Amino acid sequence: MLTSLHVRQFAVVEQAEVDLGAGLTVVSGETGAGKSLLVDALLLLTGERADSGMVRAGSDRAELSAEFDLAALPEARAWLAQEELDDGEACQLRRVIRAEGSSRAWINGRPASAGQLAELATLLVEIHGQHEHQALLSRTHQLALLDAYASHEALAAQVRELAVQWRELGARIRRLSGGEDREQRLELLRHELEELEQWALPPAELAELEASHKRLANAGRLAEGAAGVAELLDGDSEFALRRALGRAHAELGKLAALDETLNPALELLDNAAIQLGEAADTLGRYAQDVDLDPARFAEVDTHLARLHELGRRHRLPVAELHDKLTALRDELAELEGAGEALEKLATQRERARTDYDKAAAMLGKSRRKAADKLGKEVSALMAELGMAGGVLQVELEAAAGDEPDPQGRERCELLVSANPGQPPRALRKVASGGELARISLAIEVATLGKDSVGTMVFDEVDSGIGGAVAEVVGQKLRALGGQRQVLCVTHLPQVAAQGHAHLHVSKHSDDGHTRTQIQALNAEGRRDELARMLGGVEITRETRAHAKQMLERAQA
């Protein structure tokens, strides 16, 4: 759910912050006041292309941000976690558009691309308006909408998985039965395996080899350094630590004879003398035993050099070469036993095809049943929304080709006849902007609760209607608001009265500057705004009474 929207230096808005709640929120205002700026801001936050004309005149950049509550949106939370952009059950989208034309975006404070914004937005918000119906015009989207309406997601997923499995098995069969290419691959595999088997090492052995190389390369320095430290600890010099410790022990022994409380300190010096002697002996032995073996160093150095060479050739870190060896062994074994493997793969592919055909047939049956039902529901709603005699048909046709298709055996096309007596034609060819907006609303109402998107935005879906039809549109939007968060930009009082909340957009000019303000209206403010929408310039007592009556009837 969208909880807040903040815009700064955007078009004619100097700064505005809007808090939003559940249900239907309506947005109204005088023509030209900038009602659709909220929709424009959301479009930009969902990855829409930006340009410098959106920056307020005289400003260097426009800033937009939106906060979403993801408590009821598990798919959005999963997407954010997958992209490592998650931040609990909250999500912030932010975008900055600069006057020179560049823009930057963030998701939960982390840089994001416009593509990522768009991908996430499909899980957060749907925007419907006279110019924002590209998704509804897409045949792929229409098929997905039908599948969501039919609630057979599990069956559609099964069809998808079986088609992918069938294709992957085909790719493996082609690779195993590759003829001349197969022989060349076998020869290359044997050569690469021979090298890797000679040089590649498991992680523990590789770590030991690298440690040995480091030790051998620095053998002289290690021997000399250890001997020097042993001399400092217990050498012939009068400054050796053991001699100094002996002198300190003698002095403290005299003092302890005078005060027994010093005996613990004397014992500590005894222990220190023992440990210092052990350290000196250990370092002395180490200096004598350091392996000064040039031949062994050359052998280890050669081994590491070959490993790094193989790593560059295979484009892998040295530590992953042993895993590559295992993978190549498996591939070689598979290729050498191709005959038996091909038989197994062919059997598996045939089974996958049989399972696919069965699942696709069930999916097709479910789609046909849902298509008829959805067409009737949307057609009935179109009549209520001022398109009397209008008809929507969901046409299913066979997909091209005979191979298993992840989308199933059908393709979908929405056909519409907006007026009685006209034959239905493809929605993408015949619907006007206003008709498309109302058809979209009818589909949303018909498929209420079938998708997981939490916020729906309607930009003047009431364009070109009025009277009783406008009231029906408002009622449908309010019903939609009972299941989803809905934001609707409107110029009709019949629609505005149905809102659970009301935002008013106004434009003010002073000192040669134009500013747009967005204000949440209380009960009295809503009555006055509805009266303005009803009565125009002159607002009478009767107009206010009518507005109050409309609000009371809508809230009843």
Automatic annotation (TrEMBL):
Residues 2-508 form the RecF/RecN/SMC N-terminal domain. InterPro entries: DNA_recomb/repair_RecN, P-loop_NTPase, RecF/RecN/SMC_N. Keywords: ATP-binding, Coiled coil, DNA damage, DNA repair, Nucleotide-binding. It comes from the Bacteria. Belongs to the RecN family. May be involved in recombinational repair of damaged DNA. NCBIfam families: PRK10869.1, recN. This is DNA repair protein RecN. It comes from Rhodanobacter humi.
